[in-house]
Amino acid sequence: MIMPNSRKPLIAGNWKMNMTHLEAIALVQNIDFRLPNKYFDKVDVTVIPPFTDIRSVQTIVDGDKLLLTYGAQDLSEHDSGAYTGEISGAFLAKLGCTYAIVGHSERRTYHNETNEVVGAKARAALRHELTPIVCIGEGLDIREAGKHIAYNTEQLKGSLAGLTAEQIAKTVIAYEPVWAIGTGRVASSDDAQEVCAAVRSTIAELAGDSVAASIRILYGGSVSAQNIGDLIAQADVDGALVGGASLKAEEFATLSAIAAGGPLP
Ligand SMILES: O=C[C@H](O)COP(=O)(O)O
């Protein structure tokens, strides 16, 4: 039986391919200005900028001793060597990253990343003490066919196939229905809960009840300050992977504050 666990919400802002390093500095400073330290007792907030921004973000976070963390949108499954254009987990760890997204649907779609590659990247992240945010999610055809639970369960199992229970315990899972990404068409909170609950049951099968009780499961897809309250209120939704709304400091700070249980900044 999966016992209730008080999981600290995580709000992760995936900037995707937006923001130069100069814009990144301004955005992080703006988020910090709007989100005072008191919120960080109740919510973890992280930004996931493009690789070229990470050094600048590190400088601000370290220099100003911000409680906000940061991560990367991808990493190589390899640690070093002749892999032109790739970025190693070792480099990201040295830059102070906390998280690395793996298997985002945009990587699966545009870069043909398979579950095997996603699993290898998750293991690479863990080798360097980065927390992988492992993304799964169904397309519209699967949702309309009513096969979304089976699809997501299989994608999750495939993506975590090479990981031990101890490694799974150190991951974050993000459920992002592809039809809700960047479309303004958010899944209902019931839809999000249904899949996130299935994810937790699958984690229990793979790694045991205690890991299932403690692992954080995020929802992603058109999350905004308007809908985060309903989403985070669901029993198995522990936060959000936010795209578009994470590029607006005021909205990102507001939705982070809502995830913390308020008050509004
Ligand atoms: O990683 C973030 C997701 O792809 C969601 O993006 P979105 O909030 O712009 O729909």
TrEMBL record:
Compartmental location: Cytoplasm
UniProt record similarity statement: Belongs to the triosephosphate isomerase family.
SUBUNIT field: Homodimer.
Entry annotated with the keyword Isomerase: yes
Catalyzed reaction equations: D-glyceraldehyde 3-phosphate = dihydroxyacetone phosphate
Pathway in which this enzyme or protein is active: Carbohydrate degradation; glycolysis; D-glyceraldehyde 3-phosphate from glycerone phosphate: step 1/1; Carbohydrate biosynthesis; gluconeogenesis
Keywords: Cytoplasm, Gluconeogenesis, Glycolysis, Isomerase
Species: Gordonia defluvii
PANTHER family found in the cross-reference section: TRIOSEPHOSPHATE ISOMERASE
Gene for this chain: tpiA
EC number of the protein: 5.3.1.1
Protein's UniProt name: Triosephosphate isomerase
Keyword Isomerase applies: yes
